[in-house]
Amino acid sequence: MSQTVAFVGVGKMGANMARRLKDCGYSVTAVMDVNAQAAADLAAELGCKACTKLADVTAAADVIFTVITNDVAMRAIYFNAGDNLLVNAKGKIFVNCATLSPTVFREVFDAAKKAGADSLEACMASSISHAREGKLYLMLAGDEAVYEKVKALIEQMSVNRRFIGGAGRAAEVKALVNMVMNINTAGLAEGLGLAAALGHDLGLVREVFSQTGANSRVLETDSGDMVAREHDCWFSAEHAAKDSGIAAEIAATVSLNLPLNAATKAQYDKMVTLGLGELDKSGIAELTFKGRHA
Question: What is the C-alpha to C-alpha distance for residues 27 and 21, in angstroms, rounded to an integer?
Answer without folding.
Answer: 8
